Fold each of these.
Amino acid sequence: MSKLKLSVLDQSPIHDGKDDKEGLLDTIKLAKKCESLGYHRYWLAEHHNTPGYASSNPEVMVNIVASNTNKIRVGSGGVMLNHYSSFKVAETFNTLEALYSNRIDVGIGRATGANFLTARALHEQNGNEYSQKAYELIGYLNQNLSKEHPYHNVTLTPQNIKPPPVYLLGSSESSSTLAGILGAGFVLALFIGTHNRSTKIIKDYKKSFVATNVLKKPKAILAVACIVGDTIEEAQFIASTHTYWKLQAFTRPNRDALLSPNDLKSVIENLSPSDKKYYDETMNTMILGTAHSCKKQIEMLALEYDVDEVMIVNVTYSFQDRINTYEALSRVFDLNKNNKI
């Protein structure tokens, strides 16, 4: 596993009780840092009307991160395609690829990234259209929509741009199989929810994969939540911020912004038995511990799921705590030696 690639999925958390916009500025700082540390890609997430997270527009953040870095691949993780016209998304990423040749990834997902009312404000379409939109997006980028499609003759501007690879993000067989059929990459989100994700998801993806001019072979990635501390107890303490935020997200109609671990001590002690159970289950889905123990866990997962790349999701109250994790993982994986970009 010495050649395992590590990448970053950034949800642009708002750190240290700062103003919301600082979450976007911290994303730029972290992207530059992670490029220097040898990470392979840097993807930006999409969340709407979500306390604690700053980025609602990943394509804008892809542009600004790419313009502030030099070599690292940059992409969306992901654009929530049901909200948007597949042609407009194709135009956007075709333009980004024209500006940053061979550095852009198009990550898409079917979730809303928003509450019901906000999703309606975004003109969300019926979720059943996701498969068709994903097909159209890839067809527009590759200029190979079937002749029967009503928009077969519509072309992207600027023209003659090498199409960027498309990745589907998901946590189930439906997304992985669709990715394979479409000849797209697939990212299995182990950091979402607490349900079991079978290795069969990746196996089915590889089995169903149809080669394209953009991806000749299946490309599967794992996305995991990971926090490094000097001890596992310190990592768990730091992780309480994200764990409690997730507890609110999945069990409460409203949620707070990111709270500091110190402020959460008494809150966690007074959780109801059912909430404490969900809190513990959520924390158990994260990779927590020292740098060396986290390395072992990441390598075991990569071996179990048969992937050569893992994306690290890291949400903390303190911005410095996030930097510490990415620095520590870079050291133990020797990324600047192994992950030549």
Amino acid sequence: MKKYLPYILIILLGSLVLFYPRVSDYLSGREHARVIDEYDQAVSAMSEERRNELLEEARAYNNALQRGESSSSVYYVETLNLGEVMATLTIPKINVSLPVYHGTSEAVLQKGIGHLEGTSLPAGDNNTHAVLTGHRGLPSSTLLTHLDELSEGDYFYVSILGTLMAYRVISVVVIEPESYDSSVFALYPDKCLVTLLTCHPYGINTHRLLVTGERVEDFDAAEYDNYQQAEARAIALKQKNSSEESEEESGFLFYIGTPRMVAEIPANEKINGKAIALLCAMILFFASVIIRNIRHRGE
């Protein structure tokens, strides 16, 4: 048996490498969901008066920025700070729902979306331009990997203190890092803008991708609601293991229940289940072939 051990270890190592991105993305997706749930609970526990008070503080901060006044970093971090999270970002088209934190330190960008200090807070008021930034292609999390799939007319959503704000994409541009300055994130009268910023192209990161959305008051929340329902359905299926249906689905939901794929469960559940079963069968087949060949040589 010992002589077969190296080959078994190679197979196991290959399987770990193959499944690591999906597993790590699944685990980070669970962590994002936990943080967002805690944020929602903290907001729900507040009185409407307190929520309005915090929102007005954020808008006062934005007004100070508009007047060119500088604010201390302490004041910035304490504004909209509910357990370090200031808001949540949801982009149904690319199936991500992420917490938004203050600042853009590496520690922040490893766990979610960062808000660029010095730009407006995403409080929904006019004459503001908030910048939210995130990584692409982390081994442990999808984050904004698929942001380049957004185009003009698509929507993303920012939820802050229980208020859902919709942003329609009005521009998608790629620039060099040294090309953007304060003018790129300029303020426009009577407009509430949010720009999503990430590296580009994927895996090369020589440029920056900027997706800018303008807040719209009158919007159809069906896309957002459908995404939330799909996410809730995925969570419910993972927690339900007693019935035959849930046992059949839970095996592959571990792999496809990530932020990227959660809204595609109805269309992909059978395909992914069969694909994973086939993959496992192939691994076992090649392992048996290797062992049989080694035995034959030994004889």
Amino acid sequence: MKKILCVILAVITVALYGACTPKGIDVSTPPSGMTVRFINVEQGDCTLIESGGKYMLVDSGESTYSATVKDIMRMSGVDKLTYVLVTHPHSDHFGGMRSIIKAYDTENFIAAKTECDDVEWTKLLKFVHDKDINYIDAAAGETYELGDAAFTILAPLGSGYKDDNNFSIVIMVKCGDAKFLLTGDAKRESEYEMLSAYENLDADVYKCGHHGSSDSSTASFLREVNPVYAVVSCAKHNSYGHPSQETLDRLSLLGTKVYRTDILGSIIAVTDGKTITISGEAKADSSTYTVGEKNTVPSALDLVGNVKSKRFHDPICSSAKEINEKNRISFTSRKEALDQGYTPCSQCQP
């Protein structure tokens, strides 16, 4: 009887693991490498990063997905979380975090200062304090090691934002030469601040801001990031229309391959610092890229100016398409357009 039970448990374990493992991809982290799991929590965000036996969880999704997240963490071999990072205090990003921290020993908790007085957020912060977890105020420019990888906080760069999404912590995770940019729900205001603050935002894998909404992943920002792969975390047939067609069009102009959780389920990227292999769990759609071999930014993503009106536009803006060729001018950056005295279109806000 015991043998039968053991066999049944083994079969169940293999079945569960297989349901969370992309087809055709080796998800084991290579020596001196990193594995990034974009866990499908539908209309929310949750990313598990592992390198050198160290684990970091970025967001958790809503509380209804905490059991799912914990199951994937268990099957991924998580025994302790070196870092937990909540990008910003919206429940689709932190709702399940208290339950997860209850289940796993956590060394450090990173969050940004906001004026949020949400009851559940307050409970989470109190729980972190009561568990004596080291609390870290997110500060742009700070870098932390995670096994063979490291991550640097790029944003938020300001304060007093009218939209809480712009308080989102943005991090660049680097392993060897491979770079992953995770932006939470940062919108165009935060993106433009980063463009002004940093000379280099280049990344190989880009976690699309705000679930791929039209008010993030601006043309100017995408030009600088120039990702080979973009990941969108969203639910099937969600009421927000995520990802927006505008964002998908910009990524298409850039030649970026898009991986969506609503189509592919959880998405896993594995890197040894020199190559990146990425795939979705629900559909065999694996791709491998050698770091450093991506294409240059095409002129199709240039910002478009009107020499007559002295306004500049996103390349997919309807107004840009109506500009007479003799009045048309292109800019390779937002700064270039502003420096030449052009003002941004009030419609597309490039």
Amino acid sequence: MTFANKRVIVDDRKKRFQEADKWRVDMDKQQILIVDDEEINRMILDGMFHDDYETIQVCNGQEAIDRIQENPEITLILLDIVMPVMDGFTVLEFMKEKELLEKIPVILITSETIGDSEDRAYSYGVADVIHKPFYPHIVRKRSRNIIDLYQNKKNMELRLKEQEEALLAKQKEINDNNEFMIDALSSVVESRSAETGEHTRRIKYYTRLMLKYVMKYFPNYGLTNAQMDLIARASVLHDIGKIGIPDAILLKPGALTDKEYEIMKTHTTIGCDILQKFYRDTSNEFVRYCYEICRHHHERWDGNGYPDHLAGDDIPLSAQIVAIADVYDALISPRVYKSSYATEVAFEMIMNGECGQFSPDILECFRLAKRDFFDIVEVSNMFNFS
């Protein structure tokens, strides 16, 4: 092979590498879609932008839609109105249906006079309308301003999304920490009393179940899914104050004396003292639910509960729900001082007022959830949770 032939091969390879590099640069450029049935208009517009942008030319609306579907990351569309096959307004209708006009700016370039067409175009949400004949420097300037505006908006949305994801991750970390603390505290109670066992876990199930019925059938309470989750998680701390009750009373295998019963009742206020030491931010909604449930889950609708003898709607909803869940589980679970009641018997005892008075709304939800409560018990028994 001669030197001249080698030089030709080298030059040819160099040319191909340069073309490949140019192709890669073009791929990194922002893309502008030019849609016009007149070739001269497409060429003029292409000449304005091809140095700084990758331009794509099509001659009708159908081709424009095809390109948009192939590449939804187009930076700008320069769109004519009157074209064969499919006009510009049909393209706008397609973009509106696909919710693309908020993402891809459109400048309508038309020879039609100002009037209904312009009003109609703006009603779709086009970024601008420019009339033919146009001044190239004006079109270029407006286009760049619009591209910058949409890119800044897109970048802002991305930053906001990143911030939102960071906040959600932080909230999840806080929730996980709360969950760990809750499990740890409830485990301490369980370790002190053989009676407790899986009691706290079932209370959480019952509470969540009751909350769903309240939210569905009694929207006047204004419960949200987020509140439902917080209340359900807080419910497992309802008996945390039993940590401070002496073993002789907590584990007594028989009925308590009046004096012992008064001491047992203090588990509600002891629990609140413990919570205040763990959670100092009393404005936090989760902490508030923990406190309400711990202090008031033994209050009764008629005011004959404890420790504050609250009555009616003065009793927080969270505590009312945990109260009925707690009573039901106590009835169906064996204790050192009693055997368990059948689920149907326990249900009737609560509905008949044999275990204290409850809100009519809460009783109605309990009635509606009857079958679900029974199912939870059956599943619990299958896995020896009690």
